[in-house]
Structures are given as structure tokens and as C-alpha cells.
């Protein structure tokens, strides 16, 4: 059997409270993501969806953890010791992170952004960039710079670039937030229909869309909330 894409245990991330806002503590006792998983990360605004995606993308270091495996590799020590070069290499090889604001290189066209992502990942993924762009409704925009696109078009371009890399793990932070319902449906179905050897974790407030596309909901919830601190954990809902 293939290794889990993610397998982690007893992870804690804290943030000190600022004036007027409580301290924040995210506790993940156990989290395992298998190839083929379709996970919708949900929860109220500010609960920590982006924070958890950043942790899984190896961008944000937790305060403590007992165990962290990415695609069968134990990277707990790399994380606790902040070995950024090794973590960057692991991220490039295994993970594609579709950011809320697009994160596209402003001086490259949409098509060139996608081709660069594919080259950097050394991907031999069969699905062409043009086919993906067609499904996302942005095929005619491949020659344009990100600055010439609307917010929703940029968001679809970010999805295109994320998928072009062919990474085994796709993380996407609210990839359909700026889209009308038709384009949101097309983008979410594209993510859901990726080959079954890929794992997809998408944060979103559009729970009905997630479930209609076959995503299992993982909900971040506050276990304790007071004026000084909020303690958050993850609840996995039945499929
Ligand atoms: N860079 C930061 N510095 C300090 N606090 C932060 C930072 N980023 C997020 N937070 C806080 O951490 C908590 C989790 O934020 P996060 O952005 O992960 O939530 P979210 O569930 O993704 O929210 P939304 O649905 O609004 O995008 C919030 O209390 C937020 O205010």
C-alpha cells in the first residue's frame, strides 16, 4: 500500500493574543491523509483553516509535534529544527499550494506561470495546460498577464498553475471564493476529479458545494473560548 500523504500526531501551534484579541491555540491530536482523499476543510472565519493549510504546506512551523510524515518521509525534525532548504525541497516535490490571492508571478503570462510550475515540479503529468484552462474557462486568457485579469479569473489561473505542477498533494485555500456559482462548480469538480493517486485538501465556506462534489468535511471547532484564549481542534465528519 502507498504511504499516507500526511501522517501527523500531537501537533500544537500557538499565537499570543494581541490587544483586544485572545491568544490562539490549534491542537491536532492525529491527522492522516491518504492518496485519493478529497477533504473539505471548513469552520467559521478566523478558526484556523489557512493556518492548518500553511502547516501542511510546510510554510508555518508548529510549536510542537510528536510525529510528521509527508509521503512516507519523517520530517518532524526538519520542522522542529527549521531546516528550511530541506522543507522547501520536500514541498516542491510533493505539494502544490493554491493560495487565496493567486500568488502568480506578475511578469509572466498565465500560461507561462503554469508552464513554469510544471517545469519546476519536473512533472510528466499527461493532462495538458490547455485542457485544464478550457475546463476552468480561461483558455483565451493564457497569453495575458495576471494584472489584466479580474479577481475571479486570477483565482482560476491560480488553480490552473496549482494543477499544472502535477503534485501528489493539492492544498487550496478558498479557491472558489471569488467565483460565480457556475465557475465555482467547475473549479471544485476539477479538483474533485483529479486522478485518484492525488490527495486534495480544500478550505472553503461553501459546504454544500464541497459535499456535492464528494469532499468529506473536516471541521475546525473551538473547544474552549474565553476572553483570553481560544483553543481549536479538528473534527472529522462522517462521509
Ligand atoms: N500572521 C498572523 N499573525 C497573527 N495572528 C494571525 C495571523 N494569521 C492569522 N492569525 C490569527 O490566527 C487565527 C486563525 O486565522 P486563519 O487565517 O488561519 O483562519 P481562517 O479559518 O482561515 O479564516 P478565514 O475563513 O476568515 O479565511 C485567527 O484568530 C487570526 O486572527
Automatic annotation (TrEMBL):
GO terms for molecular function: ATP binding; ATP hydrolysis activity; transmembrane transporter activity. Keywords: ATP-binding, Nucleotide-binding. Gene3D superfamilies: P-loop containing nucleotide triphosphate hydrolases. The keyword Nucleotide-binding applies. SMART domains: AAA. Residues 6-238 form the ABC transporter domain. SUPFAM superfamilies: P-loop containing nucleoside triphosphate hydrolases. It comes from the Bacteria. One of its GO terms (cellular component) is plasma membrane. GO terms for biological process: lipoprotein localization to outer membrane; protein localization to outer membrane. Belongs to the ABC transporter superfamily. This is Putative ABC transport system ATP-binding protein.
Amino acid at each position: 500500500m502507498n504511504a499516507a500523504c500526511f501522517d501527523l500526531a500531537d501537533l500544537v501551534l500557538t499565537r499570543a493574543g494581541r490587544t483586544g484579541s485572545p491568544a490562539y491555540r490549534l491542537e491536532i491530536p492525529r491527522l492522516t491523509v491518504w492518496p485519493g482523499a478529497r477533504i473539505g476543510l471548513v469552520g467559521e472565519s478566523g478558526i484556523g483553516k489557512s493556518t492548518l493549510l500553511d502547516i501542511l504546506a510546510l510554510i508555518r512551523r508548529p510549536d510542537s509535534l510528536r510525529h510528521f510524515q509527508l509521503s512516507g518521509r519523517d520530517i518532524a525534525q526538519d520542522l522542529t529544527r527549521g531546516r528550511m532548504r530541506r522543507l522547501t525541497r520536500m514541498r516542491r516535490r510533493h505539494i502544490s499550494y493554491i493560495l487565496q490571492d493567486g500568488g502568480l508571478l506578475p511578469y509572466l503570462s498565465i500560461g507561462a506561470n503554469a508552464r513554469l510550475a510544471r517545469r519546476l515540479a519536473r512533472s510528466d503529468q499527461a493532462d495538458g495546460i490547455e485542457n485544464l484552462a478550457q475546463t476552468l474557462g480561461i483558455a483565451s486568457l493564457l497569453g495575458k498577464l495576471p494584472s489584466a485579469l479580474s479577481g475571479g479569473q486570477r483565482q482560476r489561473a491560480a488553480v490552473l498553475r496549482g494543477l499544472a505542477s502535477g503534485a501528489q498533494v493539492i492544498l487550496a485555500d478558498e479557491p472558489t471564493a471569488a467565483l460565480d456559482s457556475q465557475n465555482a462548480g467547475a473549479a471544485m469538480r476539477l479538483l474533485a476529479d483529479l486522478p485518484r493517486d492525488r490527495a486534495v485538501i480544500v478550505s472553503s465556506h461553501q459546504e454544500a458545494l464541497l459535499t456535492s462534489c464528494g469532499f468529506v468535511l473536516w471541521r475546525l471547532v473551538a473547544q474552549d473560548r474565553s476572553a483570553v484564549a481560544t483553543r481549536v481542534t479538528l473534527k472529522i465528519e462522517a462521509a
